[in-house]
């Protein structure tokens, strides 16, 4: 079994822009999630700075709906960060496996994610990439797991002018137009995630990014089949130009 920084790698869980995520075991055989920086960027000082920033953010954010950071090594040849391993499926996989959430399940999801965002925003952090694959459905409720591009709202040291980061369909139209990321954008993504959970469909459809962004800017959210009150509330939350 391969080992990194004293952690034994068990199986690959997935990969993202920053690195590969592994299930691993610590020195006491407790399961953890280990994010290993991709080899092709492991020697990039900027990438290491980004990882260091992610670790600092995770240390600042506390709450039962947030995956807690346990350890990190930024300066080693194989840089990594270790967090709690959340048992369950991502919201993406859960919906594809079980189907859309029932109304009472949707209410519980909305409350749990709202609790997570309150924890995040209370320390001045903006997540910036809330989406179904960044939400785990555990036995005790939803948990937000990935702060790969989250940043402190007032920290612009590593921000590239004009750069827009996020996932089409879950990106606040104002941010897509160049506005700075804010808590408002996270709440906009919260509503988009709820649409996905309720319908099993992407909130603004699929296709080329340009088509998705056009639907974002016209408020063309797919709430077909939802109860009228739920559809009305989600459509209002996803207006491109809120009053």
Quick rundown:
By secondary structure, this protein is an alpha+beta fold. Helices cover 35% and strands 20% of the residues. The chain has a 6-stranded antiparallel β-sheet, covered by helices on one side. A 3-stranded antiparallel β-sheet has the order 7-9-10. Strands 8-11 form a two-stranded antiparallel sheet.
Biggest pleated sheet:
6 strands, antiparallel
Helix content: 25-40%
End-to-end separation in angstroms reads 56 Å
CATH architecture of the largest domain: Orthogonal Bundle
Tally of individual helices: 7
Question: How are the SSEs placed, and which strands pair?
Answer:
Elements: E1 3-4, E2 7-15, E3 19-25, E4 31-37, H1 45-60, E5 69-73, E6 80-84, E7 89-90, H2 91-98, H3 103-121, E8 125-126, E9 135-138, E10 141-144, E11 151-152, H4 173-176, H5 183-199, H6 209-218, H7 228-237
Antiparallel strand pairs: 1-2, 2-3, 3-4, 4-6, 5-6, 7-9, 8-11, 9-10
Helix pairs in contact: 3-5
């Amino acid at each position: 079994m391969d080992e990194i920084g004293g952690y034994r790698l068990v199986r690959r869980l997935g990969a993202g822009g920053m690195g590969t995520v592994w299930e691993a075991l610590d020195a006491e055989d407790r399961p953890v999630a280990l994010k290993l920086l991709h080899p092709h960027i492991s020697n990039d000082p900027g990438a290491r700075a980004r990882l260091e920033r992610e670790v600092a953010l995770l240390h600042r954010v506390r709450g039962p709906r947030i995956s807690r950071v346990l350890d990190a090594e930024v300066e080693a040849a194989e840089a990594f960060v270790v967090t709690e391993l959340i048992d369950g499926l991502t919201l993406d996989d859960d919906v594809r496996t079980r189907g859309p959430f029932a109304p009472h399940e949707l209410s519980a999801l909305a409350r749990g994610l709202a609790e997570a965002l309150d924890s995040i925003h209370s320390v001045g952090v903006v997540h910036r990439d809330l989406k179904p694959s960044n939400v785990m459905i555990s036995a005790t409720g939803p948990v937000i797991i990935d702060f790969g591009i989250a940043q402190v709202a007032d920290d612009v040291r590593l921000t590239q002018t004009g750069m827009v980061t996020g996932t089409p369909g879950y990106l606040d139209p104002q941010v897509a137009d160049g506005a700075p990321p804010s808590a408002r954008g996270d709440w906009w993504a919260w509503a988009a995630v709820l649409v996905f959970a309720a319908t099993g469909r992407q909130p603004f459809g699929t296709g080329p990014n340009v088509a998705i962004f056009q639907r974002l800017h016209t408020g063309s959210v797919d709430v077909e089949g939802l109860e009228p009150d739920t559809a009305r509330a989600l459509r209002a939350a996803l207006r491109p130009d809120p009053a």
